[in-house]
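Good morning,

Attaching, inline, the backbone tokens for the sequence recovery test we're adding to the shared suite. The designed sequence is right after.
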């Protein structure tokens, strides 16, 4: 079977399947503060160490700083999915498929460094992420305030329940387990094997195909099939499988 490489944002959602996030499967949000960090290069000990991270959809960012880590959920022995997270006070590490017990352990790990999760150093953030990976939380991505909190000026709603009101009241960005809104979202299935890149996430590997969910206008989440089936439902609240999804078409094919 041919192994293809695509931009996750290059697919048509006009013929898709409606889904909704499972309210009983919250996501873990780790807000990343404005802190000195590292160049966005491949870390020491890996092939290409020191090289700027990028691909045709994610231009290299010389001079930029942030966190760089691998997402085990989308990595294989031959290819690593590198995630870039800017340390400018607007980004988050978002973790999917997290149990409440795992979430408690991650929060305790953060608390070892500081009571305010936005006051960690770059090395401490990376240690927390490595700790999460070590206790079995593999689906680790990046996101930002525009997605989490919404952007009223741009007409974007918050992705999580109650976070905007809490932020406006306290000025504190959301941290820990948070429940996705019950909004209906459009999803498609990209048959595998396929490599998919998205904003600041380079070369995610999906040997069994990938589910793409349009989480906001123009914003797409790429998800392993087993994680999708664990964390999403049909709009009526019943179980959904990847077999229920419409097959994705490239935008140029849809035209």
């Amino acid at each position: 079977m041919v192994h293809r490489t695509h931009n996750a944002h290059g697919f048509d959602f006009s013929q898709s399947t409606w889904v909704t996030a499972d309210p009983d499967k919250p996501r873990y949000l780790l807000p990343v503060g404005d802190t000195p960090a590292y160049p966005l290069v491949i870390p020491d000990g890996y092939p290409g160490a020191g090289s700027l991270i990028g691909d045709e959809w994610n231009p290299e960012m010389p001079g930029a700083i942030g966190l760089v880590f691998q997402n085990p959920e989308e990595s294989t022995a031959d290819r690593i999915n590198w995630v870039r997270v800017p340390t400018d006070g607007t980004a988050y590490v978002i973790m999917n498929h997290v149990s409440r017990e795992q979430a408690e352990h991650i929060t305790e790990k953060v608390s070892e460094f500081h009571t305010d999760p936005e006051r960690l150093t770059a090395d401490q953030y990376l240690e927390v992420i490595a700790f999460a990976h070590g206790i079995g939380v593999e689906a680790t991505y990046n996101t930002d305030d525009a997605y989490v909190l919404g952007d009223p000026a741009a007409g974007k709603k918050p992705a999580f329940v109650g976070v905007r009101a809490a932020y406006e009241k306290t000025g504190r960005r959301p941290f820990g387990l948070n429940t996705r809104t019950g909004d209906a979202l459009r999803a498609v299935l990209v048959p595998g094997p396929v490599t998919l890149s998205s904003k600041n996430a380079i070369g995610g590997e999906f040997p069994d195909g990938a589910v793409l969910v349009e989480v906001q206008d123009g914003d797409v989440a790429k998800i392993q099939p087993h994680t999708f089936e664990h964390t999403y439902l049909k709009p009526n609240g019943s179980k959904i499988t990847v077999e229920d999804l419409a097959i994705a078409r490239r935008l140029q094919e849809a035209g």
